Amino acid sequence: MNTVRIPDRGKVYHFQFASTWDELKPKTLHKLLPLIAEAQAVFRIYQGSEDKEPADLRLQELRIKIVWLLLDLPWYAFLKKRAFLSLFADELSDILDACDFLLEQPQRNTSSLV
Asked: Is the pTM above the cut of 0.70?
């Protein structure tokens, strides 16, 4: 599990989220699959496009939504949400990078019996 500590207004909030596919809860995975599929489609558009800005903006938006779902914060966790939203861009980028395992092509095991 990934752990993030965010100080905000004299308190330190701890966030934990999955770092591998195996650590994902089935409920969270069910919510993530449509976002992952869209992010992979946008990434393919990004790779083939000359004007990368629109695809890049959408990809970053999807990455943030994916992290938000991974955090699985209840609606009443206002203080934790405020702490998370107070992050600087470089801090958020580090968290987003930790979640990129969801967007990479899975490595398949091949049978050596063939």
From this structure: yes
